Input
Amino acid sequence: MKIAVTGATGRVGSRVVELLEASDHNVVPMVRSTGVDVVTGEGLTTALAGVECVIDASSGSARGHQRPTPEAAAEFFTASARNLHEIGQKAGVHRIVGVSVLGIDRFTTGHGAAKHTHEKAVLSGPIPVRVLRAALFHEMVPQLIDWGTQGEVAHLRRMRIQPVASRAVARALVDLATDPAWAASPKRSERPLPEIAGPREENLIDLAMLFVARSGLPLRVQDVSDPNDPDDKIWEDGSLLPQPHAMLAGPTFEAWLDSDDANPAA
Ligand SMILES: NC(=O)c1ccc[n+]([C@@H]2O[C@H](COP(=O)([O-])OP(=O)(O)OC[C@H]3O[C@@H](n4cnc5c(N)ncnc54)[C@H](OP(=O)(O)O)[C@@H]3O)[C@@H](O)[C@H]2O)c1
Output
């Protein structure tokens, strides 16, 4: 099957590409270095020619030291969802598989609200869509430490999460995209939306401390909260944990830290 992957160089998109290539699918990686910009629409018409399914794993969240603003994230997701549907429909794309975040409909502000806007935009376009809600990826723990570091202190929220390896999320996205029943008769996304999480509940602070200790970083982890944030309670009230219907997939964060995925040069 010809499958296009947005975010093909990203945390989950790169794993999606690996899995699809290993199963002999015809993969079209769509990132700016391959001439495709999902925000401006540049290169999409050409890239989507003959594509049956798009796996949308793009994100405006840069992997640099600065987190993009919620406004920039909302603009990115709104434009990319619109372009994938509009240009995809003209190109004859049959199906889109998207990835969202557990508990995202609880957020009213910030990045969470931007991502919820994305989920709604992807689900409301003309092309049939399946959206998988995923827990925080294990790979995000070092990124959140980086974003939260000032001097020798990493400031992070105390968050109840059930993090998952991006490779497990990629496998679930590929399974949705290549599901023969859906390919034969694509329908709109099921409710409740499918979910994936890791094998056990953790707290971000504990994971960050473990990461810092293992990597020997000269950092102290400090938990922070923001009483002025209307969504402040969501991080700790269990809203980000999986629903009973969620698929759970290993490894744990600790096992992942020892794996080749966390240590690619090892
Ligand atoms: N990270 C998590 O913990 C997590 C959890 C649940 C759900 N999700 C969702 O999973 C998706 C992927 O997240 P991720 O963390 O894997 O992303 P990521 O590692 O930040 O990768 C982002 C990808 O998007 C591409 N991209 C950025 N701007 C682009 C543009 N204008 N045009 C085309 N491509 C562009 C990047 O490629 P170039 O920069 O090379 O163009 C990169 O391949 C997002 O929808 C995110 O909300 C993430």
Q: What stands out?
A: The chain has a mean pLDDT of 95.
